[in-house]
């Protein structure tokens, strides 16, 4: 990808967002699509969030318990450190990287297929702002549902750790529970939620851009879907770096 | 009525439409014909505003489409219905929801009235029974009919059809053609049909515009298309055996001097075929 090509993409993305972020023609239609998308992109992602968060939470606690076994550190450190990892990075950043694969490819493929089968043109002919009609409900629904997914992920990550402590006894459950409560800062939860909402916007909008700009056939839709996942992953990691420096640095 | 004046479209310096002017009449089926790659679809997309021409004028009822502001253009587009080559039905909606869609977005009527209108349009294309099916559950011909029902839902003044017969068997093709013709007459619309199917042209074409390599080669009625002396048009029209034979048979019936040679050729070919048999 050349520098000129990247700049062109940024320009096209900005122009597309200008068309997307306008008031909908009909609120009734917007809300109908909004709730459909919330179900499709958000509710349907709960199962993957549940499975991954539970197991990764358990593994994090197990690894920390094994590798931070020092007489100089109190045992509740395992719970405290696991909590910070899950709250600050896993439930927002890592979860969004995973969702960029599921949701990002879904959005890019759906819009890309609509593009190559002339469904987008059909909307334009009817005098509908197709970018606004197709993309705005996806972005708003996904961003609005992100806090739910993140909170689910936090609870299940910590619960995974609880289960592993219960099964192995390392550390004991009471010590783990004490650890996850020790030095707790509520602001970390808000930090994580806000960060995930920013990532949610990136995932939905970048994937929609790649889908909307598809020209050609099925191969191009596949390429757009892959590109959207790759670019989303890079953007999420870069934004995480910047956001962490700004908020915590 | 749609007037097109000196329309030019270039893609990166390559001229795809070269100085095309035409008038498309109200209440008539206007057909744009030509070989693949002759610029028919680009011409149609320019007319509906999906592609912006390099220069020229497109007038809808006297109003210049290309000079319109966004809002005015949007309003005009509500007077347009389009049937796409691949039907372009929304996969996630049922047949009824597809037809109701333009009504849901633009009509001020209540839900019951919108549904009634959609059902009327579906009945018009004989598909009321398929109202609850999804596009993936119906045949190509049915999809085309649903697309027609959706196109007429808002009672448009202009109907555009891009290759309405592509991928359909002859009988279904004829049914779609007749539907387009009936709807054009019933709703007094200006219809524009892009096609390379000569059967359709002879069936329903009131006015025919022949494009060749982006240039307007010929225009006229279907009554005159068979006896045109334009070589490029004749190449296109008589590319099919059926039309060749029709012309040859016509030559025999009229039996005039000019067609004598054709008559001899036909007799010779018939004799050869008889020998082969």
Concise synopsis of the structure shown:
By secondary structure, chain A is mainly α. Helices cover 84% and strands 0% of the residues of chain A. Chain B folds into 3 domains: 1-79 and 157-226, 3-Layer(aba) Sandwich (Rossmann fold), CATH 3.40.50.300; 93-155, no CATH class; 240-277, no CATH class.
How would you describe this protein?
The complex is a heterodimer of chains A (249) and B (277). Chain A contains 9 helices and no strands. Chain A has one domain (26-243). Chain A starts with a helix and ends with a helix. The relative contact order of chain A is 0.17. In chain A, helix 3 (46-67) packs antiparallel against helix 4, helix 4 runs antiparallel to helix 6 (130-168) and helix 8 (186-212) runs antiparallel to helix 9. Chain A is an all-alpha fold and 249 residues long. Chain B is of the alpha/beta class and 277 residues long. Chain B folds into 3 domains: 1-79 and 157-226, Rossmann fold (3-Layer(aba) Sandwich); 93-155, no CATH class; 240-277, no CATH class. Chain B is 44% helix and 22% strand. Chain B contains 11 helices and 10 strands. Chain B has a 6-stranded mixed beta sheet, with helices on both faces. A 4-stranded antiparallel beta sheet of chain B has the order 2-1-4-5, with helices on one face. Chain B starts with a strand and ends with a helix. The mean pLDDT of chain B is 85. The interface between A and B is medium-sized, with 16 and 25 residues.
What's the helix count of chain A? 9
Q: Average pLDDT value of chain A?
A: 93
Determine the mean pLDDT of chain B.
Answer: 85
The CATH H-level homologous superfamily of the largest domain in chain B = P-loop containing nucleotide triphosphate hydrolases
Question: Sheet bearing the most strands of chain B, described?
Answer: 6 strands, mixed
Q: In the residues of chain B, how many domains can be counted?
A: 3
Largest sheet of chain A: none
Coarse structural class of chain B: alpha/beta
Q: Give the overall shape of chain B, derived from the CA principal axes.
A: globular
3D shape of chain A: elongated
Approximately how much helix is present in the residues of chain B? 40-55%
Structural class designation of chain A: mainly alpha
Helix content of chain A: over 70%
Order of helices and strands of chain A: HHHHHHHHH
How far from one another are the termini of chain A?
32 Å
């Amino acid at each position: 990808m050349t520098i000129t090509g990247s700049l062109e993409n940024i320009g096209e993305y900005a122009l597309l967002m200008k068309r997307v972020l306008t008031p909908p023609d009909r609120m009734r239609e917007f809300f109908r699509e909004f709730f459909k998308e919330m179900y499709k992109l958000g509710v349907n992602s709960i199962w993957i969030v549940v499975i991954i968060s539970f197991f990764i939470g358990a593994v994090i606690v197990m690894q920390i318990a094994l590798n931070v076994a020092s007489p100089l550190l109190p045992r509740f450190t395992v719970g405290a450190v696991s909590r910070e990892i899950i709250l600050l990075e896993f439930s927002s950043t890592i979860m969004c990287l995973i969702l960029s694969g599921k949701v990002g490819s879904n959005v890019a493929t759906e819009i890309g297929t609509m593009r190559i089968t002339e469904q987008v043109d059909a909307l334009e002919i009817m005098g509908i702002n197709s970018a606004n009609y197709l993309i705005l409900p996806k972005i708003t629904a996904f961003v609005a549902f992100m806090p739910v997914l993140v909170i689910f992920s936090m609870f299940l990550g910590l619960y995974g750790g609880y289960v592993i402590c219960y099964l192995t006894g390392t550390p004991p459950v009471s010590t783990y529970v004490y650890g996850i409560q020790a030095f707790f800062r509520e602001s970390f939860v808000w930090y994580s939620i806000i960060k995930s909402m920013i990532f949610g916007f990136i995932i939905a909008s970048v994937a929609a851009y790649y889908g909307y700009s598809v020209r050609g056939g099925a191969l191009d839709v596949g390429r757009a879907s892959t590109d959207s996942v790759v670019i989303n992953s890079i953007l999420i990691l870069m934004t995480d770096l910047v956001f962490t420096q700004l908020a915590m640095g | 009525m749609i007037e097109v004046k000196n329309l030019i479209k270039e893609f990166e310096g390559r001229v795809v439409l070269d100085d095309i002017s035409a008038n498309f009449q109200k209440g008539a089926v206007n057909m744009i014909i030509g070989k693949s790659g002759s610029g028919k679809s680009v011409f149609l997309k320019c007319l509906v505003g999906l592609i912006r021409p390099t220069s020229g004028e497109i007038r809808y009822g006297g109003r210049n489409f290309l000079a319109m502001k966004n809002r005015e253009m949007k309003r005009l587009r509500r007077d347009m219905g389009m049937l796409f080559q691949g039907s372009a039905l929304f996969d996630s909606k049922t047949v009824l929801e597809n037809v109701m869609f333009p009504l849901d977005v633009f009509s001020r009527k209540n839900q019951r009235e919108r549904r009634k209108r959609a059902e009327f349009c579906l009945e018009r294309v004989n598909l009321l029974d398929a109202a609850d099916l999804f596009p993936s559950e119906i045949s190509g011909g049915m999809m085309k009919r649903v697309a027609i029902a959706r196109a007429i839902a808002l009672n448009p003044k202009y109907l555009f059809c891009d290759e309405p017969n592509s991928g359909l068997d002859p009988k279904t093709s004829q049914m779609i053609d007749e539907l387009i013709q009936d709807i054009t007459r019933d709703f007094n619309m200006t219809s524009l049909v892009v096609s390379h199917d000569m059967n359709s042209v002879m069936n329903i074409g009131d006015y025919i515009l022949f494009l060749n390599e982006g240039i307007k080669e010929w225009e006229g009625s279907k009554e005159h298309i068979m006896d045109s002396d334009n070589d490029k048009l004749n190449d296109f029209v008589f590319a099919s055996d059926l039309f060749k034979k029709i012309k040859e048979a016509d030559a025999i019936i009229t039996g005039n001097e000019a067609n004598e040679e054709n008559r001899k050729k036909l007799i010779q070919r018939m004799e050869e075929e008889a020998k082969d048999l």
